[in-house]
## 1
Amino acid sequence: MEALIPVINKLQDVFNTVGADVIQLPQIAVVGTQSSGKSSVLESLVGKDLLPRGTGIVTRRPLILQLVHVDPEDKRKTGEENDIQRKNSQSST
């Protein structure tokens, strides 16, 4: 799965640039009743906890997840740099 994400991202970028979908990229639809585990299925496929948790109705909208491979060493893209700046600004106030 990890090796497939960058390839799909490049294909999506090319298709967006030329404005055409020459081939259909893999897509998964998760359908079920309320609280049946649809969000958990998506998180399992992605391998990350990224959706809200709680009781009752939590995920209220259709979701489209586009997976983008980011080098773990690139803190600018992983958001860690922003987290560090935010924590520093909060501790100085």
## 2
Amino acid sequence: MRHYKDHPFSFNRTWDEYVNGFMEDEYRVWIGLETLHQITKHTPHQVLVFMVYMQYNADTMWGFEAEYTDFKVGNRSTHYTITYSSYIPRTSNSLGDTLNGLNGSSFSTYDRDNDGDDNRSCALQYAGGWWFNGLNGCSTNSITSFFTCPTQNCGPMAIKKFPGHQYLYQYDKVVAVMLFLKTEQ
């Protein structure tokens, strides 16, 4: 669903762009909310979240995985709400429950605020569209805290808060991929 490579580009896109999908190049792709709905509407899917990043000023690569069962994306009238049954850590260095608190959340963009918080817009705060839960502190412990930029102008390196830690790390060369795997019948 999201795929990053080398340096970031802006995911601060309009609602229509997120609904229809967009592609800057073969590495920077969002397949579209309507496509996600069509893929998952009849048969629940497992979604595998895989992320690799290289820490700034280091030769160390890190990889993380997480899996969700019975993953579905609702239709336009639900604002493409996501639902899933369970989280399964895939590796000892798991991402953790990156969608924690987002089950049942609607998708939000800067021009379509569906996060449930009337006092702020999580999509504006994180400069990108996602399934935000504004009543859960914009769910900054989610996967969005790795990839979105808390300002409008991020360069090839951004400072990110690592889940569960009070200090900051710097990353460059981030790769993240979400893949759908058909649920076993």
## 3
Amino acid sequence: MPSSKTAHSCTHCQRRFLIRDSDEPRPLLSINSPRSDRDWRLWPPDKAPITLSELKKMAQDRCAFAKYLCEKLTAGTVEYSDDVIVSRIPPDMEDTEPNSVVVSLATDNDFNSHAFFTYMAEADSTVAHEVPQRPPNLYPASGEAFSLARNWVQECLQHHSSCANPLDEFMPTRILQISSSGSSIHIRKDASLAPYAVLSYCWGGLQEITLTKSQVRLSQLSFSTAALPQTFQDAVLVCRELGLKYLWVDALCIVQDDPEDKAVEIGKMASIYQNSYVAILASRGKGVKDGFLQTRAPFGAENSPGFRLPYKCKDGKTGSVVLIEQSASQTYVDPLSTRAWAFQEFILSPRILDFGELRTTWICRAEDKPTDGFLSSPISCWSRQRFHELISPPPEANLESTHQIWSALVQCYMASSLTIPSDRLPALAGIAQRFNVITKDAYVAGCWKSHIWLDLMWWQENGDSRRRPPGYFAPSWSWASIPFCKFHYISTRSCRVDGGFQLLDYEVRPVYETLQYGTVASGFLQIRGRILPEQCLPSIPGPESQDSPSGNPTTHSFDVTGHYPLSVSCSIIPDPEFEGFGGMRCPALALCVCWDQKRSQIWGILLREVRPSYFVRAGLFTLHGMADQPPTHSAVKIETDDHFGFAKGRDESFRAWRESLPTKTMKIF
């Protein structure tokens, strides 16, 4: 964060921009017009409000905060009068975090520009008791920082009943032994049981130092610490500060040019991470050469200006806080947090020491996530917490809730990035393996046999590069067959499997027999299910259509014959391979998978026959039952003015129509 030297402050800041959030009087200014009905907070409180004219004058008088507000609030095309008031939007009227300031112009224009800020106070500040947000610790490798890390570890091991202690029953095949002086490391095989750390980091391209078959053959297994990439050097230092002599690093503990060794060790990934003493996350670094213990840049040093403003506490104490752009703190994403392999390592590890650009954070199963300064919740913590609750003894497994956790994990995972496309399943193999310990289910290329009907119900959001890349990675019905993207499952809270849907047989053949949760060579599902009539499906929009097939549903309505007046509306989200069929009736079979009785809705998948009896997934569809007028069919005895009876009759007719659909047996590859 900006220190007192880098954060701007001037007489205008001190005189006109007092922050007093606690015990703040109710908003004093109301704007009522056809376009706006909003209360505004006068700023500063208890003084004459600041007008845009005054703000401009302060900016001309070299007040950097006033200049910043002027640029932010008048950036649009709207012209404002000089007497418009500069106001704060009350926090209880906006979706803002604690310690936030939102500034706008009090006008009847709902499309005003806003300026969003987060404020913080130093630990020794007179207002620190009311402002919990702290600036980042600029020195993550200081003695004080390492002392804090040791305290976090000991607090967890000694006092957290929900956190499992490391068990002396597993040791990785290979481990780095750190010399007593820390000047060298040696790759040991079959070491005796002992506490060890694991390192999670971004490779950042080809590695200069890795373990190879020739090194193993020639017993070239020792390295000078100074010769290692900076991230490895920093990890060695962290281990020494924590009193650990063993460190696991994938590049040096897996033979990188031996596919079979890779397969074996990837199969042990869950055990390697779950049995670790601590996981060291080098979240700051984009590559192995970057390191993660270097001095942090303060807020305001480069991209984000910082402003020191006066602050008054509820108890009357006064001091100052530093404001920074809220986007600087909330939208910054550490490079490691976007990596698919790191997602699994984050989920599996029982204890984590996360070295980020803005903070060092301790993460375990306790609810508190202490940091060495700036507060922020790491991504995916919800999924991580639910996962550890699931695998903790006693495992009272509920398959439905278990599947919800799996779906959430897959959705988070699919938002990551991966250098090697064939790693999609291996990079999640450890999590899948631990899931199966609880569920005792059959793993089917990223899906689960007991909930296969739910696992088929996914779609990709518009705007992503959605075409399946060259090569084979998974069967077409699996999420693992598509690129990483904004990925969703349909909401299945009120869905049930369609009565005609039945999994008759399945087969998944892994590339390596020892890695059943990893890369697959082939696979199919043999399914019997109901098929929609061809006329149900809409045409595929062409490239000139505004209804893009890439994630936007295309809808088609028609009347069902043979039943009382009933219309159905079918929407499809075709997979990208269908983009070449623009303007044509959807050339696919529509397989009904699940039924939402509450909404009179059928969900299913589109299947394309690429050769006789060989089907591949081609998209997703949903079909709604509708009726614009109360039915008059004599077989349905309801009163026409009875809305509930009308709806019930419509639903019964839709159910009868659905159950009358023909069935078909097919293999989906």
## 4
Amino acid sequence: MQEGRNNAGNPQPQANCPIGKVHGRVRDVDPFAYMPMVVSLGPYHAGHDDLQHKEREKPLCMQDICTLSIKNMAVLDFLQEVIFPLREQALMYYLHGINDLRRGRNDVDDDIKLNFRFNLMLLHDAAFLLVAMNALPRRNPNQVGDDEQRRTSSHGLWTDVAIVHDLLLFENQVPLVVVDKLYQIATDRTDFSQIVENFVWKTLLKHPNSPIPDQKVRTTAHHLLHQCHMLLRPTGYEVVVEIGGASSAADENAGVKRRRWHRAMQYHVAGVGLTSKGNIDGGVMHHRLLDVEYSGGALEIPVLHVDDNTCSMLRNLIAMEQASTGVGHYVTAYCVFFSRLMCTAEDVTLLTKKGIVVHQLANDETVAAEFANLCKNVVFNEDGRCNYLREACAAADERYQSRVRNWMTWLKHKHFRNPWLAIGAVAAVVVTICTVVQAVFAVFPRN
């Protein structure tokens, strides 16, 4: 029995993409970015009083699945065929165990009760996901069940947006292997992975920062946030896993000149161009949100649309990368870039004028404050191979450090911004040259 208690409280984590809690120092920067608003999935937020309304809907979702099941199975049948075979595999995903499922701090429930609570939670959460993703086929497409009608009638626009927000939180995930198994047994179909990709794809399409499909990337998603992460992968990116911790990172960076990103206004003054990658070829997008490049003396940056949920999604993607191995750190690299690029209102104003940033927040100061702290307390080796933007950073920094270009750019901004001043300066140069020539001929007259 003691062995079962240890496995339930501290399981061995899933190697590639575990579901964990955000580190305290990172979480303290913006705690609400990681907290669900209406629905709890997984053990970490289970039992919160403000999330109980959706908890009462989950058994109704399971009833819908039992009704629509081609095998006319009951809840206990699904527990036996879906949860029991996958329980240990699902448990390994939860990096911090399932002790949050206990009723209270002094809960003395034995492992049997705790494990049953975990099994039922997995089943109900998987059922809720299938209904939320509209993944279940209907026997009668023109008829909507009474239970679903009651649920949808209570949903408003805010609730629908909040549910989508909650489905993409790092601490609020369910292993898709369980949801896939439930879907297969209930429908006798095997296209669940495509349903997940389409659902996340449509969710991102509602956001202006929508990616473009990548037919080459066909990795199985571990959970919904992982699927979102894969869809945002930069074009041509290959995952680089750095092993060995800080010592190996120091060895790798030995002898390498340190480079860093600078503020947008500093780049502008130093003559480093900042251009936006817009839609081309009849409005068809040929790049992704993270496809930042340095070309022709300028940083080419895809348009970033900022709303109330943008930084929350980015923070959760960063948290997933921090806890995972083998998924890459490209979202962290992108966020480090933007946290340095626009950390003041002056930078946001400049990027907005250039069409690189489009925001719906109150003012530029609010946007700058959000992004300035986006990567606070996050561990990331900017000079390591995991940073897909390090070549662009080095090229931009080299141009930024050029004294000749800095002087020419300063002269341009200081004296040639006004066209009349430019004409006057050119005229003064011409007059000076003529004066020098006249003086030369006066001293050395022609024979």
